[in-house]
Design the sequence.
């Protein structure tokens, strides 16, 4: 062994490679000649929550149904713990895939008690089943309702029973399709957090389908953003939010302001200053995209004009069109004097300038994204 190295030191450097709990490779499914799932690949580790996020109709549920085994793919493979589960020739039946399902219309069996609902998918001795049901009902805080029937429970309570039922057979993988959308906001946060804790404790790999960015950011260790059957971006919520791949991705997560400009000498000239557009040919249009919370309003100098620092770019004048209080922030809409375009800005707390007031706006360079111009 070379000088300066010992076994302990080396051990610390070795990366332990874990087998993915769920891996899908190049899944494709077409209906009537249209690919609704188009070459989708995903890897989920034990204890990891990945949110498949995208607008309605982009192919999220079809992807989930193929993994569950209730829909067949046209091509591609599904693997669990390093074992092939399904390709176009070989197919493990749905009930033997070790996959738990939790959908929005989770329908408990109405004629069975809570305890019997949870015990439904369990095998083993009566004693073992009773113990597992008891443990899970404790953990979802429903033990006192063990002998109740579903119709005697609130929506949130039913959802907790559904969660216990889905977890009871200790699935390796949990597929969840908009599981919380039937709940009102007050209940939803608590049940989401409880669900997440339980799934992590059981080391389950989770694929959760949602069309709500906020839910995906709250629940997901990773977000896989889907559009028109394809995964357009994948990564930790922070990375997807702060390094979006295109204008549509920015707009999907939040309101977005767009300033269009034509590139000249790798620079896009705007009323907010010049932006670098490396590698973009002269004469090409680009969109400078920025979120309302990153617009800076010059409160002090108001109409008299600020002296921007270089990182803030150039200040442009906007006339207040409308200002609304949204609770924890205010949304102010401006009509820009230089071209009549609209720019939205959010400001913490209460800031409600009168319509017609002129203010100067800047956008920090680091908060802007430059994309090829889109028709969207
Ligand atoms: N069995 C089917 N036959 C024909 N078209 C289908 C079938 N199943 C799904 N589709 C179509 O495939 C597309 C994707 O549907 P899917 O349910 O996967 O989308 P989604 O992203 O889950 O949408 P939502 O969030 O609205 O549920 C839709 O245009 C849908 O109409």
Sequence:
């Amino acid at each position: 062994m070379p000088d300066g190295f010992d076994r302990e030191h080396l051990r610390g450097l070795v990366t332990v490679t874990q087998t993915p709990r769920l891996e899908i490779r190049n899944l494709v499914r077409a209906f009537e000649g249209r690919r609704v799932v188009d070459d989708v690949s995903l890897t989920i580790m034990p204890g990891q929550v990945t949110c498949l996020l995208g607008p309605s109709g982009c192919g999220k549920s079809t992807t989930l149904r193929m993994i569950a085994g209730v829909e067949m793919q046209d091509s591609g493979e599904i693997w669990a713990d390093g074992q092939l589960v399904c390709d176009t020739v070989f197919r493990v039946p749905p009930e033997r895939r070790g996959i738990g399902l939790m959908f929005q219309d989770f329908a408990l069996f109405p004629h069975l008690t809570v305890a019997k609902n949870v015990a439904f998918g369990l095998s083993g001795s009566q004693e073992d089943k009773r113990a597992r049901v008891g443990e899970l009902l404790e953990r979802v805080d429903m033990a006192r309702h063990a002998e109740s029937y579903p119709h005697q429970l609130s929506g949130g309570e039913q959802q907790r029973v559904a969660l216990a039922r889905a977890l009871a057979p200790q699935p390796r993988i949990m597929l969840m399709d908009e599981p919380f959308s039937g709940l009102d906001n007050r209940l939803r946060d608590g049940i989401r957090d409880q669900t997440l804790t339980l799934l992590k404790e059981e080391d389950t790999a989770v694929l959760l389908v949602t069309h709500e960015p906020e839910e995906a950011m709250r629940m997901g260790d990773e977000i896989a953003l889907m559009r028109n059957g394809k995964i357009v971006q994948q990564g930790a919520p922070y990375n997807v939010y702060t390094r979006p791949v295109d204008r549509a991705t920015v707009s999907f997560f939040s309101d977005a302001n767009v300033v269009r400009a034509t590139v000249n000498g790798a620079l896009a000239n705007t009323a907010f200053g010049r932006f670098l557009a490396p590698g973009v040919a002269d004469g090409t249009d680009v969109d400078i995209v920025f979120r309302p919370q990153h617009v800076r309003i010059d409160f002090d100098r108001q109409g008299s004009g600020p002296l921007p620092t270089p990182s803030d770019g150039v200040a442009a004048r906007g006339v207040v069109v409308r200002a609304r209080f949204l609770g924890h922030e205010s949304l102010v809409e401006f009509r820009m004097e230089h071209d009549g375009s609209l720019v939205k800005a959010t400001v913490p707390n209460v800031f409600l300038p009168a319509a017609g007031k002129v203010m100067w706006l800047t956008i920090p360079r680091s908060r802007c994204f430059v994309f090829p111009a889109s028709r969207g």
